[in-house]
Amino acid sequence: MGKPKVLFLCSHNSARSQMAEAWLNHLGGDKWEAMSAGLEAGELNPLAVEAMKEVGLDISEHKTKSVMEIIKRGILFSYVITVCDESEAEKCPVFPAFTRRLHWSIPDPAKLTGTHEEKLEAIRHIRDDIKKRILDFLKEN
C-alpha cells in the first residue's frame, strides 16, 4: 500500500491549500502525499509564494487546480482537509465514505488589506498557523 494521500481544498487553490500541500509534503513527505485544489482554479498568490520562500519552500512553479480536475483523475484520498471559511467549506464536493474530512478555518489571504509589508506580515501568520496545524496533524496520525 502506498502513502496515505491528503487533499487540501480552498476557494481558488491560490494560497492556503498550496501552503498546506507544501508543508505536508515537506514535513511528512516520506510517509504522506499531499495535493491541493480549489473550488475553482485561481491565480497563485504572490504573497504566499514570497512567504513560503522565506522558509525555504518554493511553490512558485505550482499550478492551481480545480477540485473537479482532481475528481476526474479518480484519486482516492485518506483525508480531505478544507482550509477555507465555513461557508466555502460547505460548497466542497462529497468524497467517498472512506475519506475522512476535516475542516481548518483559515483566513483568506485574498482578503488581506494594507501595504505590501502589512499583507506579507499577515500571510506569514497564516503560513505559520498552517505549519502548526500540519505538525499537529502528523502527531495525531
CATH class: Alpha Beta
What proportion of the residues is helical, as a percent range?
A: 25-40%
Shape: globular
Number of strands: 4
Strand fraction band? 5-15%
Low-confidence stretches: none
How many structural domains can be distinguished in the coordinates?
A: 1
Based on CA atoms alone, the radius of gyration comes out at: 14 Å
The helix/strand series, from N terminus to C terminus, equals: EHEHHEHEH
SSE blueprint and pairings:
Elements: E1 5-10, H1 16-27, E2 33-38, H2 46-54, H3 67-72, E3 79-82, H4 86-89, E4 100-103, H5 116-140
Parallel strand pairs: 1-2, 1-3, 3-4
What would you note in describing this structure?
This protein has one domain (5-135): Rossmann fold, CATH 3.40.50.2300. It is 40% helix and 14% strand. It is built from 5 helices and 4 strands, in the order βαβααβαβα. Strands 2-1-3-4 form a 4-stranded parallel sheet. Helix 1 links the parallel strand 1 (5-10) and strand 2 (33-38). The protein is globular and about 45 Å long.
